[in-house]
Amino acid sequence: MNTNRISLITLAVKNLQAQADFYAALGWRQEFQSEHVVFYDLGGQKFGLYVIDMLANDLNKTPDQMGTGAQTLTVNFASKGDVDAAYDAALAAGGTALKRPDDIFWGGYTGSWADPEGHVWEYAWNPYWTLDAEGRITS
User: Fold this and answer.
1) Which of 58, 76, 99 is the last residue of a domain?
2) Which range marks the domain in which residue 99 is found?
3) Residues 17-49: pLDDT tens digits?
4) Domain containing 21 — which CATH number?
5) H, E, C per residue of the chain
6) pLDDT tens profile 120-133
7) Do the domain assignments include residue 50?
8) Does 139 map to a domain?
9) In terms of DSSP bridges, do strands 109-114 and 120-125 run parallel, antiparallel, or are they unpaired?
């Protein structure tokens, strides 16, 4: 059994429709939406937005116990120019700038922003990884 993988990434959200609208403005296409959850296909993985009250209940917690976490979701791009374009598009869609893309100490190029509920995203170019035409890391 291979446990060295992630099948689904789920963000707890307070306002499902506002968050779904934000990701639609980024160009994300929904695979499924109900009253409590939205799913997006990531080509072999899924990304979900789930109403925080429902997710907390699933985890035997209260919404106040959920916190915001200290995670960063990262999307890698094939070039610095792609990072800049995607970063600008995220801000135009309603994201909040955290750090403008710039060269970073390990040799890459990264910038970060937050969605309307504060989930942190990093857009990056990594000179040590090769991406295929779909943007999947191949090396």
Assistant:
1) 58
2) 68-134
3) 999 999 999 999 999 999 999 999 998 899 999
4) 3.10.180.10
5) CCCCCCCEEEEEECCHHHHHHHHHHCCCCEEEECCCEEEEECCCCEEEEEEHHHHHHHCCCCHHHCCCCCCCEEEECCCHHHHHHHHHHHHHCCCEEEEEEEECCCCCEEEEEECCCCCEEEEEECCCCCECCCCCECC
6) 999 999 999 999 99
7) yes
8) no
9) antiparallel
